[in-house]
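name: query_chain
kind: protein
chains: 1
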Amino acid sequence: MTPQQDATEDHIRSAVTALVRVFENLGAEHQALTAEEAKTSAKERRGTVVRMAEDIAQTARTISSTIMELATARGLRDLGVPHQFAKDAEGRDYSPLLTLPAPSDTLYDAVTYLSEAADTLGRAYEPTKKNPGLAVARCPSHMQVVFTGLGTALGAVCADLATKDAEVAQDYAAAQALLVRLEDRVCRTVPAQGAGLNADQVAAAIRADPAVARAAAAALAESA
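structure:
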């Protein structure tokens, strides 16, 4: 096995390792959203939470499919199966029959799935007009692993494909950027303040950020 083959296979292993962690960490967020759904009575607010949980579940299904694609690509390489034609009587490529799958074709499917997973998470945490405060991670530390792991896997698969397609990373740069933005916005946490914010600090935070003001109003309406 050549050093180049070793490197490309390491890319696949790196991607799969990252995606297994992504899959594991989606569980806590889905559990939290499901529990929130059960205790939320306001119809529109509950609908938003239901949609978010469904998007998390869809992301998990996409990650599962991606891992299968990557495992297939790795297996094809290990078995030495390239993009193979059938042969005619003279030993020339015979196109009327299907070709055997190529590892690179499977990797293109995988990178497409990863982009779809990023888009699904983007929809899950898209702020709504009436309940913008819901567009945050219930389990920030777990979702940080999800966003970072997806970015790692996407980068690894693109690095592998770059040996055949130098522009593939540019094709999926938007998905990488989306994951970075989502991690920054969705997983933002408030630092511990010891005794907590006093009334003046809370009022100042609400006046300084319209999103905070809307979230505070929504929380008050929910508790009323």
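note: The chain is about 70% helix and 0% strand.
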